[in-house]
Amino acid sequence: MNNTYYGIEASLLRKLIQAIPDAIIHHQAFEAFTEGLQKEHASELLKWKRMVEEWEVEKREVKDIRERSKPDPYLVKEDSVSVHEIEKQLAEKETRNVQNGGGTTDATPSDYIISGLSILDSQLALKPEAAKREQTANQKAVLQRKRTLLLKKIKKFHQVQLSFTGLLPAVDYSAQPPEEIPLRLPSELTAEQRVSIQNLVSIEDSLREAHANQALGDLRKQLRLRTFSLKFKNENANSQGTYTRMRALQDQITARIRAAAVRYRAAREALMSLRGSGSWEDSLRVLKDHDIRGVNEHSVVEEEATAHKRALTLANGEIATLSTLHLTTGDGHRTASWIWFSVSSAELNNDPDASLHDGIRLEWLKARARAQRWKEEVKLVDEEMRRVLQYTEWKGTWWDGRASCRNTSSPSLNEGLRAYAKEQASIERARKKRWESKWQMIRVRAQDALAEKLGGFTGGDLRGNFPTIEVDLEEEDLEEDSSPEWSDDDE
User: Fold this and answer.
1) Can you tell me whether residue 183 is helix, strand or coil?
2) What is the mean pLDDT of residues 110-137?
3) Which residue, among 132, 360, 371, has the nearest Cα to 248 in the 3D structure?
4) Crossing angle, helix 8-40 and helix 411-450, to 10 degrees?
5) Which terminus of the chain is less hemmed in, N or C, by CB atoms within 10 Å?
6) Whole-angstrom Cα distance, residue 408 to residue 417?
7) Cβ of 430: how many Cβ atoms within 10 Å?
8) Which range among 79-93, 322-336, 345-359 shows the weakest confidence by mean pLDDT?
9) Distance CA 390, CA 384 (A)
10) What are 144-159's pLDDT values in tens digits?
């Protein structure tokens, strides 16, 4: 095949296959979220919509950020000193150090620690994905690409480690997957090994504390959102369709709660290694599974059990028992989880201004952004397919024109040139026909998704109810290209 087209057939097909389910799921999650807010918070919802639309218009029209007047709706007040604030303070400190004649190397101590913590976050995020037992060939290929990228970062990190710590990590990179390879940050070293690198210890200590507080804030935010979504589902579980549509949103929230808990535990474990026991444990306690609960989640989850049974009855399903492990005590003996002790009394009492306005608004905006982003991805890939097909048609016509544009004194050479041009034109048109046939069904699904015609299904697992399309992707095709990877950090 012409190198101009190498891998494009499978690459575009795979991207669209991956984008369509995500576009539908995120659209449904956003619609369910909006429907829940509309019932009791219509005025706030209208305000948020107007706020983000005005900000987006100004962002497009005013390129200089200093000249913009509209507030950024994605910014919220920090619960404590943020990771970015700590990084800013470290950068300013190192700037002063350079101005005074020190620190002339390209990489600074804070760069080293920040890079290590970034890699650690990637490892923590990859572990749940790697732990999935049943994966398709494409999912395995995506996982392998992520592991390869992560391994490259780890090797580069270890290469500069010697200059900062004086220790050369003895790591067998083939003995374990990249997400399990130890980075040997100061918190992973012994007390004796840390004696000569106290500057790195101090930097990691401050960053780990900020990471722990930020993870705790994220955890509280997601728990408030879970409480809200449970209440809405309980009050509106009058059909299996409504019940199912809320599951997409709840699955996303659950994944974020688990991720925040993992990040907090990792940061606290590092702080314990660096500091040992102390008064800091009063605010950053051990996070147990039963601590991960909302302020009023006891009564809400009891309502959830009732709603769960009602929805299953509507679906003619068997009544299953909903597990509520931390709900064994009565209301008279129940206390709030310690994770809520460091927040304001307004937030603890679910004050609309403190809880809804900061946490729910941000999650609604992010749900809106994800829905728009994946819909745009479907539209862009489908348009790229259209342009590729149009180009092959044009290229075939171009070769037709080349068949008669050159005449020589040799009849046999002229015949050979015409035959070659006609052959190339035929190849281009055959290629277009093959690709058009292979892409036809998935492009129809893409148009249905863009028109929201696939958004009305009501039963079972969201990812298991899309119309099945059989396509052939060879193993080498899966290794050629990676699809867009979205994350909340981009928003």
Assistant:
1) coil
2) 89
3) 371
4) 20
5) N
6) 10
7) 12
8) 322-336
9) 10
10) 999 999 999 999 998 8
DSSP string for 102-168? ---SSS-HHHHHHHHHHHHHHHHHHHHHHT-S---HHHHHHHHHHHHHHHHHHHHHHHHHHHHHS--
Distance in angstroms (rounded) separating the CA atoms of residues 226 and 220 = 10
- In angstroms, rounded to a whole number, what is the distance separating the alpha carbons of residues 270 and 200? 13
Which DSSP category does 458 fall into? -
Distance of CA 452 to the CA centre of its chain: 23
* CB neighbour list of residue 148: distance below 8 Å, 6 or more residues apart: none
Cα–chain-centroid distance for residue 33?
18
Q: What digits encode the pLDDT tens for the residues 459-485?
A: 333 444 444 555 555 444 444 443 333
- In 3-state terms, what secondary structure has residue 81? coil
* Tokens read off for 170: 């003895």
Q: Give the C-alpha separation, 324 to 369, whole Å.
A: 33
Q: Is 482 within 8 Å of 264 (Cβ atoms)?
A: no
- Separation CA 243–CA 247 (nearest Å): 7
pLDDT tens per residue across span 274-320: 999 998 888 898 999 888 887 556 544 444 444 445 444 444 443 33
| Single-letter residue type at 388 | V
Amino acid at the residue 4: T
Rounded to the nearest 5 percent, the helix, strand and coil shares of the chain are 70, 0, 30
Tokens of 214: 């930020």
Give residues with Cβ within 8 angstroms of 319, minimum separation 6: 309, 312, 313
